[in-house]
Design brief:
The chain has 279 residues and is of the alpha/beta class. It has a domain of 66 residues: Alpha-Beta Plaits, CATH 3.30.70. 42% of the residues lie in helices and 23% in strands. It is built from 13 helices and 11 strands. It has a 7-stranded mixed beta sheet with strand order 8-7-6-5-9-10-11, with helices on both faces. Helix 4 packs antiparallel against helix 5 and helix 5 packs antiparallel against helix 6.
Length: 279
């Protein structure tokens, strides 16, 4: 395997020798100041590499030699805390003074401590009952920010011929706006019930949980005429695990420990555009 090392800051020369020794690599390629490729690395050395990179704020990934981004046909992304930096439901709750309560449920759900995502979402949404929909607009306009490297990653994926899917346990109010803004190909999320300009505290239709995310990835791949193994899935919480397991490459982005352990690759420091540097 090739071992790709990335950083937000220049990877100093003194790192190269210990990394090569730990990886048992036969050759080192410094692509640029922040990107190093170690050829023919021993993947059994992963625990040592993980410890070294964690200590020095480096991201690493084992990638098959010759792998290309164009080998894939789809990049599927979670929205909250993956494509964007916030959890939308937590920010919505802030407008009714319940952010701390809702955020605690969100965090427990994403860590996998609440096993039933549908229950956790229902518990949170009911707390929003009676809130004016102007709060949703304010969250989008004032608080929603793209994660670092998001637009560069999407542009690189499109240039390589990949389609894009945003699949979220969040809400269509945000996914549809991001679809138009970023030129995404497919989206799937939950629909908040709104009556007379106010949230009713209910979600319409099927709730997008881990099973629905995985099914959406499979169905989108079928629409594109590709196998799920030609999909890349990116996420941060336990609700993303089944979708990520379907994909040929899974990326944990600033993710909970349970997700990092299951993913092919984890980005803890670099932006989403780190995906492009793997190939």
């Amino acid at each position: 395997m090739n071992l790709v090392i990335q950083s937000l800051t220049p990877i100093a020369g003194p790192h190269l020798r210990p990394l090569a020794a730990l990886a048992r690599s036969r050759d080192t390629q410094q692509v640029d100041d922040t990107l190093v490729r170690l050829l023919d690395a021993d993947s059994l050395q992963r625990p040592d590499i993980d410890a070294y990179c964690g200590t020095h704020a480096l991201d690493y990934a084992y990638i098959a030699p010759g792998a290309k981004l164009a080998d894939f046909g789809l990049v599927a992304m979670d929205m909250d805390s993956t494509l964007i930096t916030i959890e939308c439901i937590d920010e919505i709750a802030d407008f009714c003074g319940l952010k701390a309560e809702v955020a605690a449920i969100t965090e427990a759900s994403m860590r996998g401590e609440i096993k039933d995502f549908r229950e956790s979402l229902t518990r949170r949404v009911v707390l929003l009952k009676g809130l004016d929909t102007s709060a949703l607009e304010r969250v989008y306009e004032e608080r929603l920010q793209l994660s670092p490297g998001a637009e560069k990653m999407l542009a690189g994926a499109r240039a390589a011929g990949l389609k894009t899917l945003l699949v979220s346990g969040g809400f269509t109010f945000f996914t549809e706006r991001l679809k138009a803004r970023l030129g995404l190909d497919f989206t799937h999320a939950n629909t908040l019930e709104i009556v007379d300009g106010k949230l009713t505290g209910k979600v319409l239709g099927e709730i997008v949980d881990a099973d629905v995310k995985a099914r959406t990835l499979r169905e989108t791949c079928a629409t594109l005429g590709i196998e799920p193994t030609r999909a890349i899935a990116m996420g941060d919480g336990s609700n993303d695990l089944k979708m990520m397991a379907e994909a040929g490459l899974s990326v944990a982005f600033r993710a909970k420990p349970v997700v990092q352990q299951a993913a092919s690759v984890a980005f803890n420091f670099v932006g989403l555009n780190g995906l492009l540097s793997l190939f």
